Fold:
Amino acid sequence: MALLKIHEPGETPLPHEDERQIAVGIDLGTTNSVVAISNSEKPEVLRDKSGGNAIVPSVVYYGDDTPVVGEAARDQINSDASRVVSSVKRLMGRGLDDVKSVAGTLPYHVEVPEKSETENGEPMMVRLNVGNRVLTPVEVSADILRALRARAEESLDKPVEKAVITVPAYFDDGARTATKDAAKLAGLEVLRLVNEPTAAALAYGLDNGAEGLYAVYDLGGGTFDISLLKMQKGVFQVKATGGDAALGGDDFDHAIAEHLLAERKDGGATDDLDASDAKRLLKAARTVKESLTDQNSVEVTVALNGTDTKHTVTREQFDAMIAKLVARTAAITEQVLDDANVLPEDVKGVVLVGGSTRVPAVRKAVADLFEQEPLSDIDPDEVVALGAALQAEALTGGSDNLLLDVTPLSLGLETMGGIVEKVIDRNTPIPVTKAQEFTTYQDGQSAMMIHVVQGEREMVDQCRSLARFALTGIPSMAAGAARISVQFNVDADGLLTVSAREETTGTEQEVAVKPTYGINESDMATMLRDSMVHAREDMELRVLTEARVEARRNILAVNAAMDADRALLTKEDEANIKQAIANLETAAAGDNRDAINDAAEALENASRPFAEARMDSRIRQALAGQNVDEVH
Amino acid sequence: MSNTEQPAHKVCWSCKGPVAASALFCETCNAIQAPGQLDHFTRFGLERSFDVDVDAMEATYLKQQQKLHPDRFASKSGREQALSSQQAASLNEAFETLKNPVARAHYMLRQAGHEPEGGEGHTVNDPELLMEAMEMREALDDAKDKITIDAIIKDTRKQARACENDLGAAFDSQSFDAAKKLATRLRYLMKMTEEARAKKSRLAAA
Structure:
């Protein structure tokens, strides 16, 4: 008998298991993405159909049809590289100025917007020229998210409309907004954006049920993040975060590639690499790196420009190549420990995240830094998605655990002379609301430009510009008499809203700004509409394909049965079945799904007497030689 | 001591019944309420005193965040989500203010109607403190190795601890002018400690 549950008035009861909307956790990575689900605080990654790989390469191939995502897209690098987009995460929410910093590291053409800013003074997001399409990084990310959503729906056999998506702690406001926009395009409601290191800690914290101070060392393909979290009384508090958005395993590959090229040069080879040579060389370097995780030395042949050269790379050599990079992560880590006023011995456990933490030299550096062996019982490629899934479950189904996050970067305003006045310091717990008062500097000044920036530097041009807007209609007053209050509000997703108000005269005016990086509402609406149109096309195509596959499977099965039990087949049945098969084959060759389904049903009817005869025969065989008593 | 008197009750937005002005949730319908002008000390059930047991306050803070954080309202109405976000932000502000001794001193000064030094239009003109700050800075500039910097950090922390004790006594005796000066001194000492730490990690990274 079901027990009655009594709820306090006003308290919304938690939804029932089967009524509850399914919410997944998604690790949308630079190189790889993973989707996971949690039930009863037991998270698991969702694998592909064959139950194999949990990892979906964050790679999209834009051929002539629907975009292809994952392994299949990556396979196209060799044949149709110009239509393959990878590492798009590096461009999320990025404007013209940022692209310069990643230029040359991306294998496709990045279109630089004509103007670097929109009319509102917001930086324009870059666009990609892929095949004959022009795409924003948001659209490409949406395609990856759609594929992850499809995998989840297929695996769970239920619609999936909600997700917790992880972002690097160092993602600024533009990149966070872009990630949310991508999810919206993919038809996913984002319950919460969670910082990757925090998600990883969540995955470990719940398993170990441990209280104390933990460090999360996250070295992925392109980014490094270090976070300090305190776990107490079921609350995970982020104490401090730091990192480098352009330091990761890709840099290790580059170091090996340079080493190989230098050796070739010493041997007399002159290499003038084009883009595809560089890609092949980096692929070889990556293999070397991965092999050196388990081996002390590895041999590799580099075939470029018609000259094959053989090389031996030892782990010792590799360690020397990456020593500087690893030392840089150590220096950042020390800074974060200092920020939080924490000594290495105060840290109770170190969580490793990201494929690059498999490199032995990295593990050793982490162990030396914290004077202890890091935790590694959860796969570093899956741990973030698992934590995200736990958070998704906590948000939809309730939880005893709570995640308290902080702002990774300081937020401020431009003041006289291009100096940044910080309004919210980095590592401030969120949500947070803070107001700062400013005044006019000219008599009768009626408007004031408000320029919102993010970053740790002192000067505006060294920080990231988030938004610019004008507060107008300030009543005529002497310089310094107006009281303009600018309020910053950062929500639990780490997203910023800014408003300004003139307060002396009671005339209130409020302007709210949400930085959006070049995707305005109408662009967003168009993209949503497009994606819906395509979704219908895609859906129809999928249903048709499924019907065809099912039809062929049925025909094969009936043919096999006729071969096996021809003796049980009457002449009349055989003729009917053969006719039905012919009809179904004709239908399956066409594009009418209903016709295929009708023909499939006709085949099922025609073959029923035969199927029943086979069933009877099997039962008789099974019962032959048995006593009635033995049959249950 | 509070400079704005508030009504003891307001109307609950959800059930329209009366609810205590300082209540986080309505006692009748359990709906989350707007934060209102709750005093930071009252929020944590603390007496208004400079001596705060930060660990105990943190335990209260965590307990309250468990109830108020937006993650607890992810499947509730938009209004409840917005209120929870405001409540959580107010709670964060209260905790961050009282946790940091300088911010706590400034908050207590403002509550008592005294504007702390060093803000907009306030210059510090305590020659003794300015001289002391200059000497500390010179010592830090001259420090070239970890041991010397560690000694500076140890010294500034010790002085900061003593300064905090003096601040507690100043507030207890309502000597706000003394408290103002001590708060400024504490701010310098903490800034020096921070700069010394930064210099130490720069040395380590080089």
